């Protein structure tokens, strides 16, 4: 009986190893953070295919490393920021925008 990656002689060739490497896929954890109104985001691109917005664990970690405590303080506002932004600015990366919203909480203004 052949095992995965073995040829009929029971040996694994370099071509088999390369083939097996392409079969392994990285699992990326994503979290849904809200939905957009695709009509108001067309100012960035016409090619929007879904209204769902996700964030990866890697991006959450990036935010936590560069802006300590901000993710915990503001993650609850993300759905509102996405759904009802004050400004949408096209970013320097394709199909990417900077979303701006003023949030007033306990007498403090956050942008």
What would you say this structure looks like, in words?
The chain has 111 residues and is α+β, with helices and mostly antiparallel strands. The chain has one domain (28-110). 28% of the residues lie in helices and 23% in strands. The chain has helices at residues 14-23, 57-66, 70-74, 78-83, and strands at residues 30-35, 52-56, 87-90, 97-100, 103-105, 108-110. The strands form three sheets. Strands 1-2 form a two-stranded antiparallel ribbon. Strands 3-4 form a two-stranded antiparallel ribbon. A hairpin with a 2-residue loop joins strand 5 (103-105) and strand 6 (108-110). The longest helix has 10 residues, at 14-23. It is globular. The termini are far apart. The model is unreliable at 1-7 (pLDDT under 50).
Please name the defining characteristics of this protein.
111 residues, two-stranded antiparallel ribbon, disordered N terminus, single chain, alpha+beta, globular, 6 strands, 4 helices, 28% helix
């Amino acid at each position: 009986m052949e095992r995965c990656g073995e040829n009929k002689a029971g040996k694994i060739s370099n071509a088999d190893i390369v083939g097996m490497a392409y079969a392994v896929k990285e699992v990326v954890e994503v979290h849904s953070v809200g939905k957009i109104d695709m009509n108001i985001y067309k100012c960035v691109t016409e090619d929007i295919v879904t209204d769902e917005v996700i964030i990866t664990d890697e991006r959450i970690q990036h935010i936590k490393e560069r802006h300590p405590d901000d993710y915990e303080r503001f993650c609850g506002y993300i759905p509102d920021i996405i759904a009802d932004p004050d400004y949408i600015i096209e970013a320097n990366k394709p199909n990417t925008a900077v979303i701006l919203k003023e949030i007033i909480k306990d007498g403090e203004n956050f942008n």
